[in-house]
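A reminder from the course coordinator: this example appears on the midterm review sheet, so study it carefully.

Given structure:
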């Protein structure tokens, strides 16, 4: 398919069992999908739920394509940021090479303690637990940060090792290589970016282990474990976690 950063996070075997294929999908935005891609999601993946983790501004600018048979849900997990305005162009206006890493680490840490983000990810897990059949796809703009954290939560629930969670997270850099180059070239022309701004953009479009490590550090400091974070921070119940495992493991 021609969906940027698309992948099925199923198929691997964890300490709890094998994760079902064609059940949990992650990607970048689903804007202006081809007819072929829509039919593939509808027929091959039996798509039933789309969870869009973007801001309202991002959704308005690039609305998801409609997939027949799939329910759409928008959960703006970064709405606590300035007016929820986390669109690509807006972020790039405020970033330079020196501040990219610090900015990203701050987001990855803050998302753990922010109540809006916690409600959003709590609802995200609840929606996945209620999926009775077919598949769910979750995404943001690039499918790297907000989506990456969502995938990490699900993989942890399903018993994946930390190494496997990190491997899925870092795969984004390979999956987005062509899209990032196109985006850099287009943004350079559109915004007349300087050399330093181009370098900042290239770094902004990458994921780094240091980023998601900030999430783990914050979770461990406050909650002691990922499961405690989900139970106490995201306010999901043990029953929800059990339903996710029952629905997504073979």
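Designed residues:
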């Amino acid at each position: 398919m021609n969906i940027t950063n698309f992948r099925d996070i199923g198929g691997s075997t964890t300490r709890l069992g094998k994760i079902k294929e064609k059940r949990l999908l992650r990607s970048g935005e689903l804007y202006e999908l081809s007819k072929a891609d829509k039919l593939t999601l509808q027929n091959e993946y039996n798509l039933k739920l789309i969870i869009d983790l973007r801001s309202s501004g991002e959704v308005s600018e690039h609305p998801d394509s409609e997939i027949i048979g799939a329910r759409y849900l928008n959960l703006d997990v970064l709405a606590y940021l300035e007016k929820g305005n986390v669109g690509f162009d807006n972020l790039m206006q405020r970033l330079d090479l020196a501040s990219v890493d610090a900015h990203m680490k701050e987001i990855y840490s803050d998302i753990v303690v922010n109540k809006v983000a916690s409600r959003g990810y709590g609802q995200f897990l609840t929606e996945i637990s209620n999926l009775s059949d077919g598949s769910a796809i979750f995404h943001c703009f690039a499918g790297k940060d907000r989506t990456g954290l969502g995938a990490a939560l699900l993989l942890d629930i399903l018993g994946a090792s930390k190494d496997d969670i990190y491997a899925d997270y870092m795969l984004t850099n390979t999956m987005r290589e062509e899209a990032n180059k196109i985006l850099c070239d287009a943004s350079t022309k559109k915004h007349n970016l300087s050399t330093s701004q181009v370098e900042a953009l290239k770094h902004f479009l990458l994921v780094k282990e240091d980023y998601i490590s900030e999430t783990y550090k914050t979770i461990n400091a406050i909650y002691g474990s990922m499961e405690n974070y989900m139970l106490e921070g995201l306010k999901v119940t043990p029953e929800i976690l059990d339903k996710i495992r029952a629905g997504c493991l073979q």
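The two ends are 25 Å apart (CA to CA). The first strand starts at residue 7 and ends at 8.
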